[in-house]
Write a structure and sequence with these properties.
With about 400 residues, the protein is of the alpha+beta class. The chain has nine helices and 25 strands.
Length: about 400
Amino acid sequence: MNRIKAEELIKKYKEGNLSADEKLVLEKWYATLEETSNLHLEPGELVKNLDDIWKTIELNTTLPDKKPVIKTIWKRVAAIAAILSLVIISVIYFSSRSKESQGSDYRSIAKTIKPGGNKATLTLSSGEIIILDSASNGKLLEKAGISITKTADGQIIYTANGNHKPTDKPLINTITTPTGGQYQIQLPDGSKVWLNAQSSLRYPSFFNDKERLVTLTGEAYFEIAKSPKKQNFKVTTINQTLEVLGTHFNINAYSNEASVKTTLLEGQVKVSRLLPDKKVEVPLLLKPGQQSIVSAKTLNVENVAPAQFTAWKDGSFAFKDADLKTVMRTLSRWYNINVSYEGTIPNLEFSGELNRNLNLDQILDVLSFYQVHFKMEGKNLIVAPSNTK
């Protein structure tokens, strides 16, 4: 089916005028596309890649005058998955249409830019720096009864042995991921932390009887082990402090984002806003499925779909109504690129999920619906309106 025919059927779908035969054609087309596509974008993104006629098609939107026979298309899982893949057609369309004007500008360079991977440095209290991605697997260090081990799957594990004395003073270590890096660490209490790109975690070599305190910059996903001594686990970031006993949560605290976002998956956490004088406001209790948004002046809570904010840990970018600059900040951290803008960038939003293992050119091809012009100069990605050469 060509693009013109697709537009015609989609328009009829919107109006509730599809015949039984046309409905069958549309469903078959969706099923065919599903078999050949591996990108998962919300149906709403299709509309932004073609003409204005597509702009009102949204995921999970039910029009009041829709005929029952039409609604069945959206109820079928296979059909929904196929609708998601429709964006591939629009990407191909825009890519081919703009290939002559921008293909030579970014693709030859962008296709050589690989995604990030397991990269990090471990800074010990002595100032010694261990480059984890080049260090040999196995035991890296043993000091004061604490062993530090590197595993083959990109993880650092702290364990206490028989020589460890709880009365010893803990040593402060810091694990840092670069742009284009990620890493996992198992803390001395058994808690697990996944660090996203351009992030760092400062923590003691073991936790004392009073508290379990770490400091985060950037983004991390936490699975906190319950303490037999009932020690609260505290995470300090810019503008906020968080306190838990045992739970799963994600914190996004990048300095170039407008706010610190904490998303709770399991258990309960107390979130407090740090005031300029370092005092702490009355804490707010988060429940699973909620997200706190802390800025320099406010603390708000929203109900969210947590999986969207933890997708990075499982190898995906997940966006919901994200503007271009938000998407680009995420890409710059993972692909180790600098992004700049020229002219007035279209005010469009993007929702969808993309594999973090794709090369940069594949990601940019998908984002062509923004109707922007990409140009690369080394590691510098320049974004301009599509009418700018």
